[in-house]
Design brief:
Elements (H helix, E strand, L loop, with lengths): L1 E10 L7 E11 L4 E6 L5 H9 L6 E6 L2 E2 L5 H4 L3 E4 L13 H11 L11 H12 L18 H13 L5 E5 L7 H18 L3 E4 L3 H6 L3 E6 L2 E7 H5 L3 H12 L13
Parallel strand pairs: 3-8, 3-9, 6-7, 7-8
Antiparallel strand pairs: 1-2, 1-4, 4-5, 9-10
Helix pairs in contact: 5-6
This protein binds adenosine-5'-triphosphate.
Adenosine-5'-triphosphate (ATP) binds next to strand 2 and helix 1.
Length: 265
């Protein structure tokens, strides 16, 4: 479903600030895979997601979705295939528009020739029933401006908008990190529910190791622009935070101490 082949990205080339953000990244996700991504600060996790969404292009390497080379496809075209939720609850929705208008915009995003955001009765029913799955009573607030919603409600709406069109790839970039613990828990369980419902192929960055272990069938750990550990299925189910830390130490020869991942246990 998704393939990254030999992806490299260098920032500020030939300057004192030169930085290898991605170093020979190879990754393949099969349909329905849910992969969690952990790693130290500056490891290249967001840069990798930006390569997939088209916000950045690699210096070398190929990005494929459904066996199609999309390396040079602009971001706005890829957005028909990709859903994304960011850390900032303000990033995924338009605050001055209503819940219904936001949903209509997201709905038309993956329709090739549809620019209208008008909502007929059938569409409104679809929006209502989709909102019901969140159990936040938003289905009765279709005309409320999104700017009035709490951070958790906005993030739940962003998640719904990113998933209800069944994207080929769902990208979650620390999407629970800015929420208080109870809201983060709610968004985590909604993520599980929405991803499982449509078996969405998903990549989720998190600094919360427990969340990385609890969700998904695959896990990768990144460090200094490289994927240093990949764990799948059975092996992932048996993984613990202690084992993960030991693996990091074994591979890198240094302790994972000052990382904010540790604070999220
Ligand atoms: N536009 C940019 N210009 C210059 N350097 C950048 C740019 N974007 C990212 N970097 C650098 O590339 C490296 C990888 O950054 P990236 O944001 O992908 O890391 P990350 O793993 O997501 O980190 P964090 O967990 O701290 O968010 C970092 O050293 C970062 O400072």
């Amino acid at each position: 479903m998704l393939k990254l082949n030999q992806i490299n990205k260098l920032f500020n080339e030939a300057t004192p600030d030169e930085k290898v953000a991605l170093d020979q990244i190879n990754l393949e996700l099969h349909p329905g895979d849910f992969m969690t991504v952990i790693g130290s600060n500056g490891a290249g996790k967001s840069t990798m997601l930006n390569m997939i969404s088209g916000a950045l292009t690699p210096d070398f390497g190929v990005v494929e979705i459904a066996h199609k080379d999309i390396t040079k496809m602009p971001e706005y075209k890829r957005s028909q295939m990709i859903g994304r939720v960011f850390q900032d609850p303000m990033a995924g929705t338009a605050p001055t528009m209503t819940i219904e208008e936001n949903l209509a915009m997201a709905y038309s995003r993956n329709k090739k020739r549809s620019f209208k955001i008008g909502v007929d009765k059938k569409r409104r029913e679809f929006f209502r029933s989709s909102l019901e799955t969140l159990h936040l009573n938003l289905e009765n607030r279709l005309n409320a401006k999104v700017g009035l919603l709490s951070g958790g409600e906005r993030q739940a709406l962003s998640l719904l908008m990113a998933t209800f069109t069944k994207p080929s790839i769902l990208l979650l970039d620390e999407h629970t990190a800015a929420l208080d613990p109870s809201r983060a828990e709610l968004i985590t369980s909604l993520t599980k529910q929405l991803v499982e419902k449509d078996k969405l192929t998903t990549l989720m960055i998190t600094h919360n190791m427990q969340q990385a272990l609890d969700l998904g069938n695959r896990l990768i750990m990144m460090d200094k622009g490289q994927i240093i550990l990949e764990v799948d299925d059975e092996e992932k189910r048996n993984l613990t935070i202690t084992k993960l830390m030991e693996e990091f130490q074994r591979i890198r020869g240094e302790k994972l101490t000052s990382d904010k991942a540790l604070l999220s246990i």
